[in-house]
Amino acid sequence: MPSVPPSPKPNDAPRGAGRVVRNTLASQITAEIRALILDGAFPAGSQLNEFALATQFDVSRGPVREAFQRLIQEGLLRSEPHRGVFVPDLGTSDIVDIYFTRKSLEIAAIRRVMAGPERRRLSQELQGLTDEMAERLAKGEWREIADLDLHYHLRIVEEARSERLSRSYRTLQAETRLCLRIMMAGYRQNRALIEEHERLAAFIGQGNPRDVEEEMDTHFGDPVRILARAKAALRDHPIGVPAPAGGAD
Q: Tens digits of per-residue pLDDT, 133-182?
C-alpha cells in the first residue's frame, strides 16, 4: 500500500512562493518610485540612494535594486558607471527622439484605424477626452491633463488592434510622461492644446486619411520649437506660480 505523503503544515509555503513574494514587493517598490519620479518628487538630474529608499520603504535593498533595474529599462532612471542611478535630465535630442518615435508609431496606427469600421466611434471617444481636458484646463490641473493626453494617444494606437504596436508604444509611456511634464508648460492658460486634439478627433471622424495625417504632423509639430516655448514659460512662470491670463501664444 503506497504511503500517504504528510499533510503540509499551516505555515508551509508552496515551492517558489518566496520568489513570488519578492517579485510582488519589487513591483510595489517600482510603482512607488515611478510615481515619485513622475510627480516631480525626484527632480531631473537627482541621484537616488538605494539605502535611503530601502530605509524609507522599510525593506531590504534587494527589492529597491530590482526596482532600479526595471525603471532603467523604462527610461525613468539612468545608471552611470561609478556614480550611481539618476533621474534623466531630458535634453533636446531626447525629446526630439521621443516625439519622432511616438509620431512614427501613431501614424502607423492611424492608417489602420482609418481603413477600419470604428473610426467614428473612436472620434467620439477622443472628443470626450478632449472635453475633459478642457475642463481640467479651466482648473489648471496639469497632471490630469497630461494623463488625459497620454490616454488620448494611447487609444489611437490601441484601436489599430496590433498587440506588438501597442506594446512598443507602451514602452514609451513613462518617458513620454517625463517629456510632457516639461512640454506642458508651453501650453499653460492656452487653448492651443485643446484645439489641436479637437481637430484631430474631428478629422478622424470625417474619414479623410490625408487630412488626419497632416493634422497629426501639425500636432507633433517641431519639438525643438515647442521645447523652447516650454522652457520660456517655465522661466517666466515656474510651476506652482499662476500664469497670467491669456498665457503663452
A: 999 988 888 878 888 999 999 999 999 999 999 999 998 888 888 888 77
The confidence score (pLDDT) of residue 225 equals 74
What are the C-alpha distances in Å from 89 to residues 165, 190, 237? 27, 26, 20
Q: Which three three-digit cell numbers place residue 43? A: 527632480
Fold designation for 92-236? Four Helix Bundle (Hemerythrin (Met), subunit A) (1.20.120)
CA distance linking residue 231 with residue 223, whole number of Å: 12
Contacts of 147-155 with C-beta under 8 Å, sequence gap 24+, read 149/180, 149/193, 149/197, 150/176, 150/177, 150/180, 152/126, 152/197, 153/102, 153/106, 155/122, 155/125, 155/126, 155/129
In angstroms, the Cα distances linking 43 to 3, 7, 47, 49, 63 are 63, 53, 9, 14, 22
Asked if the domains at 18-86 and 92-236 fall in one CATH topology, the answer is no
The pLDDT tens digits of the residues spanning 195-222 come to 999 999 999 999 999 999 999 998 888 7
**What CATH code would you report for 18-86?**
1.10.10.10
Residue with cell 477622443: 126
DSSP 140-165: T-HHHHHHHHHHHHHHHHHTT--HHH
- Domain-by-domain residue ranges, the chain? 18-86, 92-236
